[in-house]
Amino acid sequence: MNRIHKKLQEDKKLLSIYFTAGYPNLDDTVPIIEKLQDSGADMLEIGLPFSDPLADGPTIQASSTQALKNGMTSVKLFEQLKNIRQTVSIPLIIMGYFNPIMQYGVEAFCKKCAEIGIDGLIVPDLPVDVYHEEYQQIFEKYGLINIFLITPQTSNERIRFIDSVSNGFIYMVSSASVTGAKNTFGNAQTEYFKRIDGMQLKAPQIVGFGISNNHTFNAATHYAKGAIIGSAFIKMITEKGIEGIPAFVSSIKNT
User: Fold this and answer.
1) Alpha helices (runs of H) in the chain, residue ranges in sequence order
2) Is the bond leading into 24 cis (omega within 30 degrees of zero)?
3) pLDDT digit string, tens, across residues 141-171
4) pTM of this prediction?
5) Are the C-beta atoms of 99 and 74 separated by less than 8 Å?
6) Strand 43-47 and strand 92-95: pairing?
7) From CA 201, how far away is CA 164, in angstroms rounded?
8) Which residues belong to the active site?
9) Phi-psi domain of 181 (left: phi exceeds 0; alpha: psi -120 through 50; beta: other)
10) pLDDT beyond 90 at 60
11) Mean pLDDT of the 42-70 span
């Protein structure tokens, strides 16, 4: 069974952390993964930096720019992660844009992911229709779960189609903006969470964009299986480094 499926079956709210591979320093990728697991993160999204990250806010964009300057590439990331399953057992997802994956070769990329123990991919600019028609068989051949995003503007019909194609969780974007930490959610976002919850989709939902603290984590997971933190984590690691990870995870989970 895929590690994502196992994790989704656990009777608790899940904390997923996004970070940019190769940031702050090129060789920080594996130490960050190991420290996050040891600190209680349930799942990790490893950001593959790209020069034109359309969905990302200024914090993640800046980390991507620095990671690229540091020398991070798909080849380098795979090299760093080749022995990751000797020390890490939680689900690992690569989040990146389609261009670098296409340049590497979609099947070659998926094959490499399978070899090193990656469980899934999030590709924000790969439309679900294109995935379903052209790439689903390749992903499934290598046991990879592809995770799709929905937003408050996604129609119910589209959401149900995404749910029918999904084989893991649905990434529920909390608002129609780019990524970025917020301190609270408004009424419109709460109503959106309720609406999706009421659709009774087969795929669990994990909320991303705007989760930054225990309050927003609890608000998001009231209606969803889990929540994803990106920008707030990157800000913390910029300021405090890897040593700040245990206290950060603890503050979100309020443990």
Assistant:
1) 3-8, 29-39, 58-70, 74-81, 98-104, 106-116, 128-130, 136-141, 156-165, 187-198, 214-221, 231-240, 245-253
2) yes
3) 999 999 999 999 999 999 999 999 999 999 9
4) 0.94
5) no
6) parallel
7) 9
8) 45, 56
9) beta
10) no
11) 86
